[in-house]
């Protein structure tokens, strides 16, 4: 599946095509991982073990594991963020780790609230260790994120923590909206975009400003970097919404038609419902009936495939793909508002390209 | 029930007996309540409503309610804390509210983890609004606490937030210990005290330092005030443990034998088990059998009464009552390490007295 490409089939960003994305993500992972592990080691038993399982460092039996730690886009962004402010990449490390801790706090709680049984090809924490541990370890990671930043003790660290707190509040608002939308028959495209901006945009925005703030950047610079991150987050989420319906389970680690099974009012769905026309109307009727159905949990693959086909026919898939490109373009444009080393700019552009063409 | 009194039947603290405790608690409530309500109003729907229910401001149907907001010991302490550092009581208000937010974050999550259906004479949030809202609103209150402090933007506010974060981590550690102890056959008195220090001592300690830190106190002053608060917390919890078994349901708002029903390894229980002798041994046998019993949920009042009587006979009730007095004395003694206005000292002493003689 090619989601967001230029007419030549590749993202059109000349300055960025020399960037080694794999190396960039690897740097973020390599520099932040030891600090993340040391932070998690601070947790009292059994929370340290539960967290290590969540991060994929051990399996359900406690044996060392080489789990899939995710794409590590946020740590890479946090380090670039420090460099964008003229500081060393290392200055961004506590920010990178704090953002990862908050992200994983939200995953632990969201998986439980949403009843998701699988993440990153493995059983979720609440399935393996029970709901109480999922709540508790989520709480602990959130607290740890603040602790890590505040123990730096500088004014900059205080400002960074405040931005992280604001992002976390938006994250929680977004989850609240997400839950309430699942119980509503109709959600507008605008509501969906607001929810996704809260759930995904806010923390990515914070990742891109936190390193700069720790490096002494002023509020204008931080706000502009956040604008890039926010729209990058919306692009990221649009791609996620496409993968949530049409993604390859092998790559995503989720079930087929994952978001449809959960009745998620994701972008392709709300865009299809808003489009009008026969496919849109038929889709609306089906989803309204689904909401009242007692048999929904036993639906066959074919029934979800029918819904996915209607979403596509009504234009929801194409609209979302275009939305990913739109948000990608706004993100890149925002970077013009900040003076930064050209190499850093090229890397931020390359990361934005990567986010919209990823397959998982 | 008279729990912790001197030989004359009243707490022996001459300087404190002129303090009007009701007015002191009322001041804390009156000054912090509008700020707390304004903070909760920041939450996106439906979290604002769920939080308002939790705080007792509305009932389950959303009608205004004059609920029981608790004793408000922490807000009173936070304001006195500011005054102990020579600042105006008002300086402590954001600290008082932040501590209350963290306290209520932990109540929301703990009630869900522990399966507690009642708090302050009302159904708990997860019973009324579902587990997802209990998780989400808890998270939001925790984030709000940090937001409220950090938006002050001063170095002092950063230090106050760091102390609150440390206390929150201990709170979470304590809940983790509490949960794990419920699944163990034996818990030592030391383990129980450590758990209670984390669960109750740490946040009370923070309440007593946070106003002072916001008022510019140095670390020594803050640490010394925290020592008073920590031991006051242990005294508070010892009394709570007594009320959890022998408290009057009318006053506490909990079921009879509440902690026994939940198999809590609270102080009277662990002290009784550690005491040795026939009653202690019989109690140990009963509790070991209870842990394996499938009928535990259908136990009669009488079966719990038998266990309570054995705890008392083995000396667990008297030991815990003495422990409350011991911790109360250490708390009062700690106050000698800080220079503060004598009126403030007398009020802190009076609050300590109040905590150990309370009935709920």
UniProtKB/TrEMBL annotation, chains A, B:
The family note in this entry says: Belongs to the FPP/GGPP synthase family.
> Which PROSITE patterns does its entry note?
POLYPRENYL_SYNTHASE_1
Query: What protein name is recorded for this chain?
Result: Polyprenyl synthetase family protein
Keywords (A to Z) from UniProt: Magnesium, Metal-binding, Transferase
Establish whether keyword Signal is in the entry.
no
Q: TM segments? A: none
MF terms (GO), sorted A to Z: metal ion binding; prenyltransferase activity
Q: Which Pfam families match?
A: polyprenyl_synt
Q: What Gene3D superfamilies does this protein map onto? A: Farnesyl Diphosphate Synthase
| Biological process (GO), any one | isoprenoid biosynthetic process
Q: Which top-level group of life is the source organism from? A: Bacteria
Q: Which organism is it from?
A: Streptomyces beijiangensis
CDD domains per record: Trans_IPPS_HT
């Amino acid at each position: 599946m090619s989601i967001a490409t230029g007419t030549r089939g590749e993202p059109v960003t000349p300055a960025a095509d020399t960037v080694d994305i794999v190396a960039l993500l690897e740097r973020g992972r390599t520099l932040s991982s030891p600090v993340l592990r040391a932070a998690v080691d601070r947790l009292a038993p059994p929370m340290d073990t539960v967290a290590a399982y969540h991060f994929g460092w051990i399996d359900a039996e406690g044996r060392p594991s080489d789990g899939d730690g995710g794409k590590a886009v946020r740590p890479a962004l946090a380090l670039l963020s420090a460099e964008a402010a003229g500081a060393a990449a290392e200055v961004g490390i506590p920010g990178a780790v704090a953002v990862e801790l908050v992200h994983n706090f939200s995953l632990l709680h969201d998986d439980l609230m949403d009843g998701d049984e699988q993440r990153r090809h493995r059983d979720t924490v609440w399935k393996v260790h029970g709901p109480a541990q999922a709540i508790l370890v989520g709480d602990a990671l959130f607290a740890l994120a603040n602790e890590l930043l505040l123990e730096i003790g500088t004014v900059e660290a205080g400002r960074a923590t405040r931005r992280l707190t604001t992002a976390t509040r938006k994250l929680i608002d977004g989850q609240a909206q997400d839950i309430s939308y699942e119980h509503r028959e109709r959600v507008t495209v605008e509501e969906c975009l607001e929810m996704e901006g809260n759930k995904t945009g806010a923390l990515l925005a914070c990742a891109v400003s936190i390193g700069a703030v720790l490096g002494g950047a002023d509020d204008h610079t931080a706000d502009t970097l956040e604008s890039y991150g926010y729209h990058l987050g919306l692009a990221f989420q649009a791609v996620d919404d496409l993968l949530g319906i049409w993604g390859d389970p092998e790559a995503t680690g989720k079930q087929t038609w994952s978001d449809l099974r959960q009745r998620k009012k994701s972008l392709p769905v709300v865009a299809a419902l808003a489009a009008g026309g026969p496919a849109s109307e038929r889709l609306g009727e089906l989803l309204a009936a689904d909401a009242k159905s007692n048999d929904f949990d036993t639906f066959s693959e074919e029934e979800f495939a029918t819904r996915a086909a209607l979403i596509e026919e009504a234009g929801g898939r194409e609209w979302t793909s275009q939305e990913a490109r739109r948000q990608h373009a706004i993100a890149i444009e925002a970077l013009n508002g900040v003076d930064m080393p050209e190499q850093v700019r090229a890397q931020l552009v390359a990361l934005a390209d990567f986010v919209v063409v990823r397959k998982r």
